[in-house]
Amino acid sequence: MNGTGAAASPRDPAAEPAAVRCAVAAWLDWQAAMGVDCCLETVGAASSAVSEAERVEPAPAEPSRPSPIGRLAEAGPVVGARELARSCRSLDELIRALESFELCPLKATATRLCLSDGNPAARVMLVGEAPGVEEDRQGKPFVGPSGKLLDRMLATIGLDRSRVYITNTVFWRPPDNRAPTALELATCLPFLERQIELLQPAVLVFVGGIAAKALLGASDGVTRLRGRRFRYEPGGGRPAIPAFVIFHPAYLLRQPMQKKLAWRDLLQLSEELRRLGIETGPPRFLPRGGATAEHAS
Question: 3.20.70.20, 3.30.1490.190, 3.40.470.10, 3.30.70.20: which CATH number matches 68-276?
Answer without folding.
Answer: 3.40.470.10
